[in-house]
Amino acid sequence: MEENYKASPLKLYSYWMSSCSFRVRLALNLKGLDYEYIPLVEGQQYTPEFMKLNPISYVPVLVDGELVIADSLAIILYLNEKYPHQHPLLPTDLHKKAINYQAASIVHSSIQPHQNQARYIEKEFGPDQKLPWLRYHIGKGFAALEKLLKDYAGRYATGDEVHLADIFLAPQLYAATKRFNIDMQDQFPLLSRLDEAYSQLPAFQVAIPEKQPDAPSSRTS
Amino acid sequence: MGEPQSNCPLKLYSYWRSSCSCRVRIALNLKGLDYEYIPINVVKGEQFSPEFRKLNPIGYVPALVDGDVVISDSFAILLYLDEKYPQRPLLPTDIRKKAINYQAANIVSSSIQPLQNMTILKYIEEKVSPDEKLPWVQCHIGKGFESLEKLLQDYAGRYATGDDVFLADLFLAPQIFTAKGFNVDMNQFPLLSRLDEAYSQLPAFHDAMPEKQPDAPSSSTS
Known about the structure:
Chain B: Belongs to the GST superfamily. Zeta family. The complex is a heterodimer. By secondary structure, chain A is α+β, with helices and mostly antiparallel strands.
């Protein structure tokens, strides 16, 4: 929700296609928080100005008044604590909370970092290596998520409310289906069902890459 | 702490050299929690056994069993432990410092550690050559460490985010240990070097280090 610049204390540095930025956009939308969308142009993440905000030069970065935080999980947990009443992003049950952290970490540490390496793999080993690399790492993570969540899923990943696991899953599933054409239905029936459920959520619909101010008007990927 | 006690409700599936397992070992020590140490030899592929896959479908250590509760992934385990056993909190109360702890922990867990794990290194070794493994790892560790130096310079005290040990320290200590094993020149990283020295003085960290674990070889080769 890219609203009035002067009123919003929250600023989000984002890139339309970045699934890490997508997670934070989703969280902000779920909580009904207005924010200023500051798009990063390719290459801009290495400028001194941006590296002051995030020394590892990744999006997303959240600026909340004087406070600057980077890393999607850090940002989302911060938002959840600072704005606890609007749509809590974690269940109160401790075990379910832990499962949310675990599912988020599978995406955050076991899938997305390897997905990020795909460009390097293509450059070093050739374009025909990129898709096997992606399929392997995404497939491994998705297989684990299918097993992990089967005892917990309801309408969403860990029950009938949207929680942290969903915030991490939704963009990852979107990337897998829309960007990398991973076949979901046969191999990953639970994740397919969740993907469909997410697509119905207004908070998700507004957060998708194509709807962002910096998305090209005609998608080429 | 780390003894074979089958009556212990807390069981930790761990590998001596796993930096992710080390994070949890430190936390358990800090909180004074006894646990049964169950070794999983990842070099021999024990993480792929059906029994272990039931505990952690992605097949990584560590995994924690607490009575009926089973959790994997070090970040999830640490936050679970911190809520269930609030003695010796792993996070500061200040929301800003808490966020920096999460950020630093995630630089390690998403931008460094996944790029040095066995699968990746095997891929590099097979596709390029064994000689390429070390430069690859050193590059990614170096990039992550540079950003941690910058991130923490405004927050560090005796430890990463002040004068108490918090979550960031639990991620940093094992990663620095691993970096030294890969011959990363720590002189480039004065703050992290200072933190490493500080951690070495703490029994909770010292006892969690790889060579102190029950499954460490009797003569360490690292």
